[in-house]
Automatic annotation (TrEMBL):
Keyword Ligase appears in the UniProt entry: no
InterPro entries: Delta_60_rpt
Designated name of the protein: Tachylectin 2 domain-containing protein
Keywords assigned by UniProt, alphabetized: Signal
Amino acid sequence: MTRRRYGAAVAAAVLALGLAVGVGAPAPARQDVVVSPTPEAKHPRVFDGRIYSIASAGPKVLVGGTFTTIRNNAFDAAKIQQPRLFRFDTSTGLIDESFRPRINGDVEAVTYTADGTSILIAGSFTKVNGRPVERIARLTLDGTLVTSFQARASRPVKDFALVGNRLYVGGEFGKFNGKEIRGLVAINATTGALVPSFTLPLARSRDRFPPYVQELDVSPNGRWLVIGGNFRKVGRAERTQVAVIDLAGAKARVAPWSTRRFVGDCAKSYEDTYIRGIDISPDNKFFVVNTTGAYIGYDRMCDSTSRWELPPGSSGSGRQPTWVNHTGGDTFWAVEVTESAVYVGGHMRWLNNPRPSPEPKGDNDGPGAVSRPGIAALDPWSGVPLSWNPGRDRGRGVEALHATDDYLMVGSDTPYFAGQLRQRLALLPVTGGRPNPAPQQLRLPVRLFLVVGDSVRSMRFDGTAFGPATTVSGPATDGVDWSGNRDGFVQHGRLSHFGRGKAFWRRSFTAGTVGQSETNLSASVGYVDHDRDITPFDQPYGVAETRTAAFTDGRVLYTKSGDSRLFHRGYSLESGILGGFESVVSTKDWRGARSMEMVGDDLYVAWKDDRLYRFAAPGGRPRWSTRTVVDDGAVSGVPWAQTEGLWAVAVSP
């Protein structure tokens, strides 16, 4: 989960939901760029063990884990024996040597309290400063144990999340504060007392051991709690490995949201749970789940990261992910969602790798795979890797990610990050970061561009009427030959299109002016399939066969030669990488399509019968029954059956 920074209170949002919690919920970081891939040099070094959790309040950062030895950045600085928990200041980079709590076991979760006067920690420890505790504790800012905090867990606490003065706690315990309760509780963050209105124990383990919570997170508005772990029942509701809990009102309840995608097994060693990370988006609309499990097949959620929409945008049974990205055989651990990126850490070698070759073994690259050793940034809309690729020595992996307004903080078990010695803790600044453009949504009226033969024609279109056509590009106009084009789309002044040589191309396209040079994205974005060379340029399956294409909300809708169905795959506008995973959108017969474009919630398709059709396509899913003839060529003068490309740009009404 995210250890969110504490800043301004969000009491108004909390009270508006009717939550029985205190003032001051953690605020999500404001990051409108993808952070710099180069870590700052001034921050502390951690010499052993692992970092499990990072939290902050302004420049004061807490780091928890299994480590024992740390030091300040200066090469000649003395090593400090400070096991499992320390604090430092991002403005100076210096360790706070006055903060010296003594903890005898692993620290898996840390946070500041809502009022900023205390610290909460949890894990497997049983003593703090020599005094007995039971795996959860409250400390003052100088590291003194708060003895009035009386929470007690019978077995390790794996994760927690704070909303106001209520702490949601998950772990392996079967008793909490002496009461029989399995895996999940809510407590008063000041006293440690159980919140009696929160009664959603776990039941029905997936293996022979008791059920437990591995990961959890609470949405920034305090409404939703998402848990993941070894369970098949939460309260009275059947839920397997992942559950969404509605915290609104006087009594929490399991939300009417469920999926069966985590019912399937991964490798035998993960019979309990393969959930490894959960984080909710800053806008409270979706969450991302990371998993382990080994490669079983691209139809399973093993070794994957996936996006899931929260209620009210998505509810009911049988929920499906918005996107999935596979490593092909390596574990994801931590995940952190910001406005611009989904950061994922683990010990992965590749991403965008749903079908490693040779199938079905896994643990290899395959068509469409890109190298992302140990850490990556994904496009939030499509789940496709961004170009950001600092690299790190993989080890066990990144198990802590924490975003603030100024940094992405990365905690792991290895010393090198981006080729630089950073010893388990890397702080990547927002300053120097790059924007990740959001998908643009077209609305009528538009200017259409049609590829016919070797040239591009343009005309205005308002949904019914067509303006006069003019040729804007071609051998006789600007020297560009469009022969061999296979459709495309324009976003942010760039035309991405499937074209000659079975490749995917991009060129500038501003105000109808075509850029003279173009980039072969298939050859330049970094696809790797070293052993097999199954596809041209090692690009994903189906790219060479793509016949028509349109773009909506991070996804390319497309048809393929030799196949009658309509598909979609993710696409990153920033990196130019096409998603490796192909999903079937429609099983109707789309072989008559010659070119297509999305405008608003409608898909316009030029058909082989010389007509232009409109399909209602909310959410990018065309409804065949809504097919309507827009033009038969008599009004527009367009030979629709001869179009090899159709795209549009916005114009003023």
